[in-house]
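re: that chain from earlier
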Amino acid sequence: MSHALDASGAGSDTPNLDFAGTTPYEDYVQADVLTHLQHLRSDDPGEMVFLVTTQVMELWFTVIVHEWETAARALREDDIPVAMDALKRSLRELEALNASWRPLAQLTPGQFNSYRSALGEGSGFQSAMYRRMEFLLGDKSASMLVPHRGAPRVHGELEKALQEPGLYDETLRLLARRGLPVPRRVLDRDLATRYEPSPEVEAVWTALYAEPAGEHSDLHRLGEVLTDVAELVWRWRNDHLVATRRAMGAKTGTGGSAGVAWLEKRATKNVFPELWTARSHV
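^ sequence. v structure.
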């Protein structure tokens, strides 16, 4: 958005500076709200970048959830072009999200410790919007709703997301509607549980990848975009792991998590697993 545009959108050397109330820019962006959400809990000057970077991450989580929900809805309606557009936008957004680690990646233990106590029991795994991202990726667990019992709206949104099909569920349902042999036990699985790999689903992707220009070339392209998403999620998890290892080593994480050990375990898990394992059979 250019700051040199007048209210009509046309270029002007004398932009309108006189508004009856707040500026149209402020009304739309709510910049005054955003830039006054930083309530520091320590005297350390480094806390500001930690807090703002974390808040920026939450905003990226929000837009990525929006994109993936848009894609899931489009897949449900057999509208692959709309789903592809949303997924491709999310790739750029994931890249920006991953870049958010850069201001934090060089933190030394001493620098992090100077304001770590301000977090108290706060931890990133308590992020409700990040949890919605994970649910859309198929990593579901009812226990992850427990931290949000004190926030009814947030808890309700997470509970709804827990019960709904994720991105991969909608993809596999689309494959089945297109006549591909996705097993019924996968299609009818308990959506409130973590997705588990299936050899039959692996075989479906193997066949699709063996003939990329065949009858289902659009599904092959969809698989590649989902693989791009999965790769960037893997990079996010690894960047988180490296930043945490630099800042605090192997100490217990904030909020009582296992810290680096927990992040290492997360980093080994593939999103949309059969899209990766099928490649060994093509």
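The two ends are 46 Å apart (CA to CA).
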